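Example with several molecule types.
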Amino acid sequence: MSSAAPEAVGAMAPGDHLCVSFDSDAEQHAVAVRFVRDGLDNREKVAYFTDTEPATVLDFLAAGGITPGPNVEQGQLVVLPAEDSYLVDSPFDPDATVARLHRMVDEALTEGYAGLRVAGEMSWALRGGPGSGRLLEYERKVNEVFDTRPALALCQYDRRCFPSEGLAEFQAAHGGTAGPDPLYQDGMVAITPTYAPVGLMISGEVDMTNAPSLARALAAVAVTTEQDIYLDLSGLGFLDVAGVRTLAQATETLGDQRLVLGGLGYVPRTVLRLSGWDQLANLVVEDA
Amino acid sequence: MSTTAQPATHPEQAANFSHRALLYGSDEDFLAGAVPFLREGLAAGQACMAITAPANVALLRGHLPDRGGQVVFADPAAFYASSPGATTAGVDDCIRGYEQQGRRVRIVGEPRWSGRGSLARRAWQRYEAALNPGFVGRDAALLCAYDTRALDSDIVTAARRTHAGLSIGGQETPSSDYVDPAAFCAECDAEPLPTPLGSVAEMGFDWEQLGLAREFTTMHAERAGMRSTRVADLVLAVDEVTANAVRHGAGQGRLRAWREGHSLVFEVVDDCDVPPDPLVGQLPPRQEPGHGYGLWIARQLADLVEIRHGPGWQVRLYTDLA
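Resulting structure tokens for the full complex:
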């Protein structure tokens, strides 16, 4: 596993070859939609290689607020099934695939685009087709395209399919991992949605100045689910009474849902204990 | 009971909560006050605790049923070791624990006075005064023991002023010297704080620099050699005070740090012209998302918190480095 924090998908730029792993459709779609939208906005040619049907991809892009039709017609957005992308060669041929990507970059530039943006769903490799065991080799070799050309790629690994041991190897073959964009970010804190379980990851410091933004993020996530809301606070180095009050007030608007706090460091744990708000009925502190 | 006019505020009659001082000048006097208090509690099925020196514990065991087997004894050196604020929170937790079981608790407690400087002594007297409004209505009786042989007379005098009822030689009397707790605390806060003698590090802050203020606190606490959890405690305590200054004090303040003897001192000053409530941060906050928690928390994390006013707020947090 990469020890660095995931890079926000919205911050990706040419030169990046990042992987993203997910175990829910909601998380996959949130990241992929943002990646595609940025490519379209940046006048890049966007190639989406799916292990499902192109129609499935176009549907979730539309649900995510993109109107893909015109982009597809103009040729800026290309959605291809695995058979027409990674599996054009049988057996799968890493070198040929890398060469094909170079040609795609050439084409994109000729067509007047700023570069090439590739999103790939990699679960085709689990079908056991010929050459699929060379996926890791491909991921290592393809770095050269993104190191040298105006291109970037987001490789998507479904944790529901890929075994976790193998996943670490694939992640190591990339320049890093990508993740959902923060809901809120200032110089002090980043609040990022999580999907499995549903909640927020809160990293940095929360005090009276950004507690209102935390309140808004909590309200935003609370309407998306009826389950308990998990707050990953493992990256939260500071929390004061204003922040705890925000959490306590958030629990008042939840029905039967609980706010479950995990990964508490020393200061958040201390301020919760001293404020007495660790005794609320629907605020739960998970022990380390 | 005396028939002379009672002091204007007499919490003993008003609420469930009883808070009296046992002034004793001999073993007999101690037993005359503490034993009936504990025996009554035991007979009524109440929880009973005694937080007093080993010699007094031995005396009590000799006069209680089952050699005091039903009484919970705690070490006063440990119980009164932390700040007055943390001890108040400890008392609150203790009483709440018994309340949740539906039991009233009686506690004989003997605060520690030796080895404390004058500021600390006043802070512990303030602690006694604040117990009165802080625990109104709570299902508990506190009997605070004061050894008149060993304690300076000003401490015994303060005991008479901070407890509405006294137990002397087995006789219960209201204290004619009892003072309204807010007035007592205001009196404690009247004397100006000493000017720092050595060099003082200082920074101004407004709401955008609360994070910088935390870095300032961290730097000075680490420089003073404090271990990481203590540093974190202090960063939290000082942050609550700076946040208060931003909220209440025209949006800005100044944060200072210096060494004073064996203490590390942080001070936050601002321009707020509304004087602080003399009891601010000394009463257990109610369990609802309200306000006023910041100073309550600061008082539990720093060894001493002193507040002065005029003009503006001056809040000083002392932490022992020893």
